[in-house]
Design a protein that fits this description.
Number of helices of chain A: 10
Largest interface: A-B, 19 and 19 residues
CATH topology of chain B: Rossmann fold
Helix content of chain A: 55-70%
Structural class of chain A: alpha+beta
Shape of chain A: rod-shaped
Radius of gyration of chain B: 17 Å
Number of strands of chain A: 5
Structural class of chain B: alpha/beta
CATH architecture of chain B: 3-Layer(aba) Sandwich
Number of domains of chain A: 2
Oligomer: heterodimer
Largest sheet of chain B: 5 strands, parallel
Shape of chain B: globular
CATH superfamily of chain B: Response regulator
Strand order of the largest sheet of chain B: 2-1-3-4-5
CATH class of chain B: Alpha Beta
Number of strands of chain B: 5
Helix content of chain B: 40-55%
Strand content of chain A: 5-15%
Order of helices and strands of chain A: HHHHHHHHHEHEEEE
Distance between the termini of chain A: 41 Å
Largest sheet of chain A: 5 strands, mixed
Radius of gyration of chain A: 42 Å
Strand order of the largest sheet of chain A: 1-2-3-5-4
Strand content of chain B: 5-15%
Chain lengths: 372, 225
Amino acid sequence: MPAVSDAVGGQTRAQLLLALRTAILLVSVAVVCGLGLANLVRHLGSHEFPLAQVGAFAALAAVLAVEAVLLVRRRPWGRLRLPAVAVVLAASVLSAATLPDGRTASGVDWVFGAANWVGLVVLLDRPLRTVVAFLSAHELIAALNLVLFDDVDKGDLARLATGSVNVIGFPLCVAVVAAVLNRLAAEAAAAGAEIERVRTEEAVTAESHRRRQQRFAELADGTIPLLAGLADGSLNPEDASVQRRSAIEAARMRRLCAETDVVTNPLLHELRHCADVADRKGVVVELEARGHWPTPPVTVRRDLTDAALTALATAASWARVTVVGDHELVSVNVVADCGEVEPPRPATPGVRVEVLGNGETVWMEARWQPTT
Amino acid sequence: MAADDVITAVIVDDHAAISAGVRYWCEQASPAIRLVDAGDRLADVWTGPGATADVVIFDLELVPGRPDFTELRRLVDSGRRVVVYSQHADAATALKCVDLGALAYLTKREGLEHLIPAVRAAAQGMPYTAPSLSGALVADDAPDRPRLSPREAEVLRAWFTSSSKELVAAKLNITVKTVDTHIARVRVKYANAGRTARTKSELVSRALDDGLITLAELNQTDTAL
């Protein structure tokens, strides 16, 4: 069961995250290839090293392309994640370092508003603190570039501060939403699993209740009147016929318990349990089987074993129980010294019971033809 | 062997209690059977008093878990009449012994009732079919098994399940003698199939001489199935 709910939970999570991932990729492509590229092209003339800028742009575009491929194939970044982040930061550094003096966070500094989104694309399914760390690194690159290599004035700092609100704020919002979605998905999966577990438990309980009722109904015909008779004194435990009925019912209860066992040959298994009851009261029982037969349904098995258990329960000292079977006929036989015995009436139409008495020795045969 | 001669048998069995029990049965039998006890020494079957015994009572598993079919084949090939006396109850082992040419196959459980009759039959070169072997024959589903008539299968099944020929006769409304005839015919059919062995071919030719089975019926088994 945990495996199933895990699969269900995983599916919910994957669907939610897939939608978010697609949305973020589209936003990033729009930002990088729309705004970023437009700014780059427009201000290409004012760059000292245009090739470095184009290279940085190409690196970011390549990362987005890889994400598109991974998205289509429904694969996470996995081992590619770290190199991808490095590429994004390198592009950011390269572009910032080759920027004309005093242009940080201006329209010329296209990478300031583009690399942050690409980084977010790569780190979307990571914990929030990872995204925060990346965005801080990105901000630090711009700030350091400004502080270390440029003559800083108030205007530059103000520009950086206002730019940072957009550059850090928007991706951070998205990252927070992603984290919340992640948590919601996990909760939904857990709730789904819980519902599944409760439902299974209910089904199992209902089924075992049904089985118990059925078993009780099966005992109602034989065992319960016997026990009631013994309890109210209308049946005398010293009476031979009462003892015989008790022996038969004891064997039936043993058989009932054996019916639910998972074994390769249920018929033989149940016969062994019937034989065991006779064995306990000192009857020497031989049980032999020959041939291979299809497994009879439980009602047929009851009819087949009923003959044997009736004779076994009443045998005085010995009994021989044999089963011979093939695809056309299954024959359960018991020969025992049980004198007069009332043969049971089979409940299923395919079963025939024959009794042959020869003095004390009685031969009872129950036959079943699988094809009929 | 003349009819008034005493039957001698040699028993190979590593359990002293089994040999002692069989000796007791042989002494109590009427007429008594002279028993040579070879213990677990197979050599005593080939030399000394054991070499001239009419019947070999052979414990198939002198080494537990390793039925010695090779020794059984050697005995049969040198013309010995073998009654296999085994603690194995599985059908495959019984059928293999019959195919090799053993005249009887008994489980140890059947000894009390069937060992003495089996030894007497074997001394005459006749097969003996105890209930356990009967069950193995009727449940045999090998593709090259001889074809049995429905009646023969019915008799075998009844003999296995009731282990009383009187009960079989009463149930099928035939005489005990007819029960024996059906069982004997099955053994002839089996003797005519599979591996050749002297005991088997003797059995077939005697059955043909006695009119127990006709050549046509035997040939039918060759093309059966």
